[in-house]
Amino acid sequence: MNYEQFGLVNTKNMFLDANAGGYAVGAFNFYNMETFAAILAAARTTRSPVILAVSESALKYMGDKMLMSMIRGAGIQPNEQIALHLDHGHSFDACAHAIDLGFSSVMIDASQMPFDKNVELSARVAEYAHKHNVSVEAELGTLAGFEDEKTNSPAESFTHPDQAAEFVSRTNIDSLAVAIGTSHGAYKRKSNNETLRFDILEKIDKLMPNFPIVLHGASCIPDVLVDIINQNGGALKNAHGIPIDQLRHTAEMNVCKINVDSDNRMAFTAAIRETLNQNPEMFNPREYLNAAKSAVYENTVGEIINIMGSVNKVVS
To answer: Is 174 a catalytic residue?
Structure first.
């Protein structure tokens, strides 16, 4: 099914505008009606372009028909600049399936394969996607950390700029996810003194001026959310994220898409834990899920403003 039937757009013009304007488009993962509604409301409130991101495991959890019914029911219009993106597709079949469902953007993540195998698979996905006017993202380099059962690695390998230029040339992809010190999950850094590899971004930009670059594992893991979770029965000890100023700096460089997952997971969880702890008599799911939805909305609005810098970038 063509994504235009759902009012969605691909990411081509989003990224052109972001690179020219010195901001990034937020790609926010969702997994259910509450997170979907919160992210969409945040985009509409801030008049910001947004990428609705769905992992393979989240798609399996929600189901094809349920997910696409939510998208249709949201009444999205093309002038809102909303994309639906497969996050970390690990096979050609996964990407093709998302495209056939009506996704407007897909990521093929073959980053743990040897370079030539990564090129081969990424090029194959790009060829299929472009026949449907769908945008394609691929990844070069490896992020450490755990996101789900298919997206995890115990070690990190930084992206080599020379390889990045060759990779883009051979694959015909539309954007490239790079490894510059971010990581998946809530434990992104061992200390607050670690800095992202801005030098890698600078070298990539010299070799590929204005080519859209993507950051995964870029949640900032707010201390306030960690504290709420831990004060209400959680056990997130020594969780560290990426500082907001460093993320904002990447958006002012050549990064035009920043992925956010862990922050909204934490906002959702913190709100439920706190609400139930303060209201032990509560058993109506609508009450604590509404608190969770509000928390995801507030976090998404905050990151659109403070990290992406994409407020009022949607022009009707």
So the answer is: no
